[in-house]
Amino acid sequence: MISTLDRCFRWVSALVCPAALLGVLGGSGCQQPDLNCTVYHGTYAAKYELESGDPTSVCGSLPGDVLGLNAYYADAGGRPDLEQGSIAIRPRYVNALIFHALEQGVTDLSMDEDAQSVGDFSAGRPGADDFCEAPTLSEATITIPEVPEVPDDPETPDEDESAPLQPATTISYDWSNVRVLVNADAQGTQFSADLHFEQDGCAARYHVIAMYPAVGCTSDEDCANAGSINPGFSTECSPGLGLCVLTDEPPSYE
To answer: What are the backbone angles phi and psi of residue 196, rounded to the nearest 5°?
Structure first.
């Protein structure tokens, strides 16, 4: 079911001007790229560290998630104003529940918009430490009705289409203190944040570190040899997630 739902991990395309993001070369030599605050448009592997809450509860036992990120910019007369950017975060945990409900006709696409948290960067360019900050994001709260059990189709004996009953649930994400690493080597591909997560009255707080892209793994060697991951990043394989994650707080380099 997850593979089908992942194909539905939909995003509105960001307004990005690659030349402006990458900077320019000086006439007689090279200068440091002139970067604006941004994030890479795609999925990030996020590791959650529980700071408060019951580690045995449904809300306090999350090892991490795959997060969809996007950057948006204010309109400046038909072009993006790269000095006024914002960040959007959408977790796969709630996304999978939403799309299962959609596939079974329990709800409609209007629910889809509520799963995204959005917040403004506090400046147009990274600070002296190469970080862009988004202090607060909009809280994303969504209530998903019960989805009945899906029986297996007897006409397809070689394929199991069954799915268990999905109980009704209300989930809330409140992100804060988002810090995105933006430099010539990591243009928005590492970030950290704090997360207040609630599900059905259960609450927990996490510190989150994440990197782009989300890559599956079974060992640390898988991460070290993954061609899609920046080879300079310090990574490890998270057994609980089956994903390559950052070893340390950003900036996390070998």
So the answer is: -100, 115
